Structures are given as C-alpha cells and as structure tokens.
C-alpha cells in the first residue's frame, strides 16, 4: 500500500508492481536515463537498469527523447 501523501517509493515496491509503465514526453534531457534503462546491464549505480528484470514493463517516449544523441553519427 502506498501512503496517500507519499513523495517517494522504494525500488523494491516498484519492482513488486504487477505492471510498470514509464512515459517520457519532455524531450532530450532524459535520453541518458532512457538509454541506460533500455541498453545497459543491471547495475545498482543506475537503479533504472533494475527494471529490466520486471516481467511486464512498457516504455513510451516522444520523438525528441528517442533521437540518438549528438555525435553518434546517427543524428
């Protein structure tokens, strides 16, 4: 149970959720964390990578967030 006035929730609680849905529609400044979540090995230094072990997770991003970072040759 999440307290009605909770400001944060622990990662163990997040991982116990039946479904996880992440939405990022605010642009390129979130590119790093989105790429870490999707492509990096699980590592506690980047807690978002721990979501990879969840059985039912969806990630939806806008075009700007999904764009390859500058300097990768894929712009």
Sheet with the most strands, sense and barrel status: 2 strands, parallel
Looking at how many chains there are and whether they match, the oligomeric state comes to single chain
Measured between the Cα atoms of the first and last residue, the distance is 44 Å
Series of H and E elements: HEHEH
Structural class of the secondary structure composition? alpha+beta
Calculate Rg over CA atoms. Answer: 14 Å
What ranges have pLDDT less than 50 throughout 5 or more consecutive residues? none
Q: Write down the overall geometry.
A: globular
Helix content: 10-25%
Number of strands: 2
**Arithmetic mean pLDDT:** 83
Note the beta-strand portion.
Answer: 5-15%
Q: Strand sequence of the main sheet, in spatial order?
A: 1-2
SS element count, helices: 3
Map the helices and strands:
Layout: H1 11-15, E1 20-24, H2 31-39, E2 57-61, H3 63-66
Parallel strand pairs: 1-2
Task: Give a quick set of tags describing it.
75 residues, alpha+beta, two-stranded parallel ribbon, 3 helices, globular
Report on this model:
With 75 residues, the protein is α+β, with helices and mostly antiparallel strands. The protein is built from three helices and two strands; from the N terminus they run H-E-H-E-H. The protein has a two-stranded parallel sheet with strand order 1-2. Strand 1, helix 2 and strand 2 (57-61) form a beta-alpha-beta unit. The chain starts with 10 loop residues before the first helix and ends in a 9-residue tail after the last helix. The mean pLDDT is 83.
